[in-house]
Design a protein that fits this description.
Elements: H1 2-6, E1 7-9, E2 14-16, H2 22-25, H3 32-35, E3 46-50, E4 53-56, E5 66-67, H4 70-76
Antiparallel strand pairs: 1-2, 3-4, 3-5
Length: 80
């Protein structure tokens, strides 16, 4: 249960972060949870510019693909 709550492993990263339970991890001492409400940093995903706007790319090696900045990934979190 601890790993399911505190750990996120992706192809690129492993993140270990406190949970929102005060009895488990204590209270937050910074505004981290306001900046990252989903707790974990969004993974780097390839985006591309299309006639309909920015979309998640099907392949990361095609021309025009870029990896969004942290701010862009936070904005797109849950959308793509």
């Amino acid at each position: 249960y601890w790993c399911a709550t505190h750990v996120l492993q992706t192809q690129y990263t492993i993140q270990i972060i406190r949970c929102n339970s005060i009895s488990c991890c204590g209270p937050w001492r910074s505004n981290y949870i306001q900046v990252f409400p989903h707790r974990f940093l969004p993974a780097p995903v390839p985006f591309e510019r299309t006639p309909r706007g920015i979309a998640m790319a099907e392949r990361d090696y095609q021309k025009g693909v870029f990896y969004g900045s942290l701010i862009q990934r936070i904005q797109f979190h849950g959308v793509v």
